[in-house]
Amino acid sequence: MSYAIREGSLAPLTNAERRPNEVWQADVFESPLPVPTEDGVVWPLMAMVVEPKSRYLLAALLAEPGETPAQALGDGIVEAMARNGVIPGEIGTTAALAAELTALSQAAGVGIVAVRSMPELKDTRRIMTAHFKKGRPNH
Fold this sequence. Notes:
alpha/beta; two-stranded antiparallel sheet
């Protein structure tokens, strides 16, 4: 199912800086953190957007229950662009997700393209997952 742009979600991008030479990586996966619900514990989808040169985590967003991978990732990409005030030239993701994010690509003016591998994103995900599995001390 294709990504549906949420009403008003692109408004924060009006004054975003366009960086045509900047490339990001984005993917969606099962969250390493369980979330309690009325029906028990679930592991929701999590969208992750990374700047691969620095491995800087631009956004990590938990999806709403029942959201499709495309919806979760599209929301994560919009969040990353809005939070950082930047529209990159290109965002790499899986072929299946790139095909479902065409409307977002056109509306935001960013190339969302299929890439074969995302080693930097996978490395960032591995580090984040290891951190969460260790647990965090109480503050």
